[in-house]
Amino acid sequence: MSTGTRPHADILLAASGVLDRDARDLVLVGFLAFVVPLLFICVLSGPERDRVDDFYTAGRGLRPLRGALVLAGVYLSAATVLGTTGSVAVYGYDGLFIALCTVLSLGVLLLLAAPLRRRAGYTLGDTLALRAPGPAVRIAVAVVTLSACVPYLVVQLSGAGTTTAALLGLSGPGVERAAVVMIGALVVCATVFGGMRGTIVIQAIKTVVLLCAAAAVAGVLLHRFGWDTDSLIGAAAQGSGRPDAYLRPGLRFAAGTGPESTLDFIGLMVTIVLGVACLPHVTMQLGAAPDAAAARRTVRHTLVIVGAFCLTTALLGFGAAALVGAPAIVRADPGGNSALLLLTAALAGGPATGTGGALLVALVSSAVFLTTLAVVASVTLAAAAAIAHDLYTQVLRRGRTTEGREVAAARWASAGAGVLSIALAVGVQGWNVQFLSVLSLAVAASSLLPALVYSFFWRGLTRSGLLWTLYGGLFCAVGLQLSGPVFSGSPAALFPDRHVDWFPLQTVVLVSLPAAFLLGWAGSVLGRRRAPAAAEHHRAGAPGPR
Fold first, then answer.
1. Using CB atoms within 10 A as the burial measure, which of 85, 240, 386, 453 is most buried?
2. Measured between alpha carbons, how far is 188 from 184 in angstroms, rounded to an integer?
3. Which of 405, 422, 407, 243 is nearest to 318 (CA)?
C-alpha cells in the first residue's frame, strides 16, 4: 500500500547538493559550532529551584521587548519560514496573502492578550476553569491541548530529521529516523532541564539568528538585482512560468475545479489567522509577561518583528522564483518548501562557492534548524504542562501536592510527550504528514478559540456549553479532516489508495468553527434549562424539617 510522498526529503539536499564537498564540510562545521553550544545554554538557563512558577512561566518577569523576540520566535515556525517563501515563489500574489495571514493572526492575539494574561494560570485549563471549575473542564482542555500539540510535534520532528540527514549529505529512511531520535532527544533534554527559562533563551536567540539570516539573503539578493525591486518582481513573474497570472489573485486554487478550491483557499486563510493565535504554546507564552498591559505591548512589538520578517520573506519568494524558477522549486518539493534553501544555494554560487557563500548557506541552515528546535521545545513544554498541571496536579491529586513534585511530574511529562512524538515521527518517516500541521491549527481555531471567546466575552456560558464547545470543535475538526481529501482518495493524500473522503474540502475550519460556536450556545442554553429543573427536583425530594 502506498503511504504517500515525501515532500521534504530533498529540501536541504537540493541546496547542499550544488555545493562541493569542501563547502559542505564548512557548512557542517559552522552549523555544529553554533547549534550545539546553544542547546547547552538552554539547559544551563533552567530554573535553579523546583518552583512551578519558574518552570512554567519563568517567574512572569519577561519584559515586552525581550518578550516580543520570544513570541516572534514562537510564531515564526518552520512552516512560516519555509512555507511562506515557497508560497510566494510558486503562487505569487496568493502567496502574499499567506504571509499577510501570519501578521493578521497577531491582531487576533492582540485582542485576546489582556484577558488571557489577567486570567492566566499556568495552562489554558487554569484560564477556562475560572468560568467552570471542576475536573471535567480541565480534562477537556488537556485533551484538546494534546490533540493540537502532538500532531504539530510529529510534523516538526519529521522535518527536522530530514533536514539534519540532508545537511550531513546523507539520505534514506534509516538515516532520517536516526536523526529524528537524535534531535528529539536533544530537545527533550533541553525542555526537561530548561523549562520556560531555557525555552525563552533558545527562542530569543533563534529570532535574532533568523532575522539576520533573512536580512543577509535579502541583501545579497537585492544587490544581485541592483536594489531594483521592480526588476526583481518582473524576473520573478517570468521565472514562475505563468507571468500573466503570477501577480493576479487566483493562482493558488486555479488548478482546482468548482467552488471547493475557492473555499479551500479561504479556509486556509481563516485557519492560519485564527489557529496560530490560539495554539497552546502561543497562549502559554503570554503567561510569562508581568501583567496584562505588558502582554499587549509584547504582542504589539511582535507585530513589528513578524511584519518585517514576512515582508522579507516576500522578497525572498520573488527571488527564488526569479533565480531558481517555480517549476524547479515544485520539482524539488511540491509544497514549495525548498525555495529558501535553493535560493540561498543559488546566491552562494553553486559548486564554485567560496567561503562567504558557504557561510551564507551555514547561516540559513542554522536558522532553519533552530526554528524547528525552538518550536519543538515550546510545544513540548505546553503538552507537558497540560499533563502535569491539569491532569496530574488538579485532577488526579486535586491540588494536594508540592511544587517539587509538580515540577518533577512536568519533567517526566516532557520526556513522555517527547518520546511519544519521537516514536510517531519515526513511524511515519517517509509519509506525507504535512496535513497534520493544518490539523493542529484547525483544532486550535475550532475548539480553543470559541472556548476563549465565550469564556471572556459571554456571561451566559455554562459548564455544559464550555464542554460542548471544546469536545464539539475537536471532534468536528478531526473527524472532517480524516474524512477529507488530504487523508485519503487523492494522489497527495496520506493514504491515496483508500477512499473515505466523503468531505470535499481540504480545510475544515469553515464548518468546524461555526459548529463549535453553535454547540457552545446550545449546551449553555440546555444547561440553564436543566439547572432549575434539577433544583426543583432536589427540593421536591428533600426531606422536610422535623
1. 85
2. 6
3. 243
Residues in the chain, overall count = 546
Contact present, 506 and 264 (Cβ < 8 Å): yes
| Grid cell in block for residue 258 | 468548482
Burial level of 290, CB count in 10 A (0-12/13-18/19+)?
middle
CA distances (Å), origin 433, targets 153, 269, 274:
11, 20, 22
Answer yes or no: are the C-beta atoms of 90 and 336 closer than 8 Å. yes
Burial of 354 (0-12, 13-18, 19+ CB in 10 A): exposed
**DSSP H helix total and E strand total for the chain:** 23, 0
- The C-alpha cell that represents 371 in the structure block: 526554528
Asked if residue 63 lies in contact with residue 56, where contact means CB atoms within 8 angstroms, the answer is no
Instruction: Give the 3-state DSSP-derived string for 70-106, with helices as H, strands as E and coil as C.
Output: HHHHHHCCHHHHHHHHHHHHHHCHHHHHHHHHHHHHH
Q: Give 488's strand partners.
A: 495
Tell me the three cell numbers of residue 38: 546553544
DSSP annotation string for 170-182: --SHHHHHHHHHH
Rounded to whole angstroms, how far apart are CA atoms 267 and 404? 44
Question: Kind and range of the H or E element at 128?
Answer: helix 124-129
Range in 42-56, 175-189, 308-322, 327-341 the model is least confident about? 42-56
Alpha helices in 428-508 (DSSP H): 435-443, 449-457, 463-482
Q: What phi, psi does 495 have (nearest 5°)?
A: -120, 85
Cell of 397: 491529586
117-131 residue pLDDT tens = 998 888 999 999 988
| C-beta neighbour count of 301 within 10 angstroms | 18
With beta carbons less than 8 A apart as the criterion, state whether 383 and 149 touch.
yes
Residue bearing cell 520573506: 313
Q: What is the pLDDT of residues 66-116, one digit of tens each?
A: 999 999 999 888 778 888 888 899 888 888 888 899 899 999 999 999 999
The whole-angstrom distance between residue 360's C-alpha and the CA centroid of its chain comes to 26
